Amino acid sequence: MDYKDLANVIYPDAKSIEYYEEMYKPRNLAQGAEVTRFAPSPTGFVHIGGLYQCIINRALAKQTGGVFYLRIEDTDQKRKLENGVEQIVQALAKFDFVPDEGMISENEGKGDYGPYKQSQRREIYHAFAKYLIERGLAYPCFATPEEIEEIRKKQEAAGLRTGFYGVWAKYRNLPVDEAIERIKNGESFVIRLRSNGREDRRIKVKDAVRGHIEFPENDQDAVLIKADGLPVYHFAHVVDDHLMHTTTVVRGEEWISSTPLHIELFNDFGFKVPKYAQVPSILKEDDGKKRKISKRKDPEAAVDYYHKEGIPSDAVCEYLMNIINSSFEGWRKGNPDKKMTEFKMELSKMGVSGAVFDMVKLLDVSKNVIAKYNAKQVYDFAYTWAKEYDEELAKMLENEEYALKVFGIERENSKKPRKDLSKWSEVKNNIIYMYEAPTEFDFDKITGEDAKKVIEEYLKVYNFDDDKQTWFDKIKDVAEKLGYAREVKEYKQNPDNWPGHVGDVSTVIRVALTGRRNTPDMYEIMQVLGKEEVVNRLSSVCK
RNA sequence: GGCCCCGUGGUCAAGCGGUUAAGACAUCGCCCUUUCACGGCGGAGACAUGGGUUCGAUUCCCGUCGGGGUCACCA
Questions:
Q1: What is the CATH number of domain A3-14+122-279?
Q2: What DSSP line would sit under A454-501, residue for residue?
Q3: Which value does ipTM take for this structure?
Q4: pLDDT tens per residue across span A55-71
Q5: How confident is the model over A238-270, as pLDDT tens digits?
Q6: pTM for this entry
Q7: Which of strand B's nucleotides are less than 7 A from any protein C-beta?
Q8: Protein fold of A448-542
């Protein structure tokens, strides 16, 4: 009885790995084309850090004419959520991420390297595990949780490293005959790596973000296949990324410490080790300290949060790109109209220490993104958002023709568009006075009867058809007639000569019209409101 | 605790042996403007720390401190 017999007892029906090598031939891509992937668990939740990785993945693939695919890592039943894949696909789609290949819905995959759901790749993993067992590079381990606990305790008491390695790897040298017998008796077991690594030897790992990192070799007999027959992450990573021909593995920095294991596995199979880009996490400032942004504590950890808040997807992605390569900011300034995907991202220019997520900066980016939209785009985005999250706003926006005029104020005919909107959830408050006449008035400097007098006088001269210059001259006339300074400048030179100036007069009209002291250009507002509405609003103040 | 990563203004960050140590956001002031949002100009604000190496260290080396990750039949 030898390893081959053992392998056959464990996986009698497994195919040879050559079978799969034949089936998943190298991709027919140009030199230098990168194959990348996003590989979440089907929890239905996309973390902001996941989006961040997607941006990197997609940039890499796009820039090189490669492929970006979506693989689902569902080898842990506890992490599964009903419809989890679907939700991830949808969440990504909202950010304009449609992978070239991989899962496209809960159960559908697209591409020649599937299945793209790990739970459906069981026999593939078994074939590869069998290969290792045959060669004595892996073995069945029958340790019970109690046994493992006991080993750990002994190690701790002796001040040693914990884990299954060297002499502590209890079933590593179990005679093949005995192992076979135990298996035939139906004993539960896992498959462990028979590590040839040595802790006193060093291994150099190349990381595209950090450069070279040195570790002791892996000497742990890590679990490869769990008792339920499904692989553990480390094993699935090696098998899948090899078979799917991933060229660069973009993953979180929490994986750095397990790369020696992964490299050992790739070497055991004789496979080429992919490039690793282990990227820093996104942090959150909490109580003066920085910590990883957390799914449980921080709503902004979920990518859906931004959608709900009405922050444009483009803005979120651009903000994230700023963190990935800070040179993006300068590029964007020089190329305001290009698509973000035209920017050449470089892994080597990426920061290595995690960035604190800055909502204020995001909103600034967003403000600039929205400023580039025309009225129709703003309308479409706002309306779409409103239909999902703000019924009242949605109702307001039903009349598209009018809404377009409202959003066109200081935008459509202006080469310096307004920048007073950073998310769709601000729209309602931003334009409400264009839909409802104000009921409260705070005129600031000129009040009471004086204010009424201003309105009365203005009403006498107001003409909807005036051009802007004439329109403003008339306000100046009113100011002068009522004893206010015609020009702000002359008022400022001798403030004691007048009770106020044309700006104060304008404020009265503005407040009467909108209920606010701060608004966009008043001439445009009045043009959009229309003659009748303007007169109505103004005269109602005089009553 | 072992192993590993990281440490430039409040935040994101350029820098890669010699710089007045960029820029963006935030902040403050001024200007522009009938108000605001913009825009323009300017101010304040940083190389964690101690040793080396060097003619010279933010930059290279070591220690210290601080932060983070990882040590699962979770990913």
A1: 3.40.50.620
A2: HHHHHHHH--TT--HHHHHHHHHHHHHHTT-BSSHHHHHH-GGG-S-B
A3: 0.95
A4: 999 999 999 999 999 99
A5: 999 999 999 999 999 999 999 999 999 999 999
A6: 0.93
A7: 1-8, 10-14, 22-26, 34-39, 67-75
A8: Arc Repressor Mutant, subunit A (1.10.10)
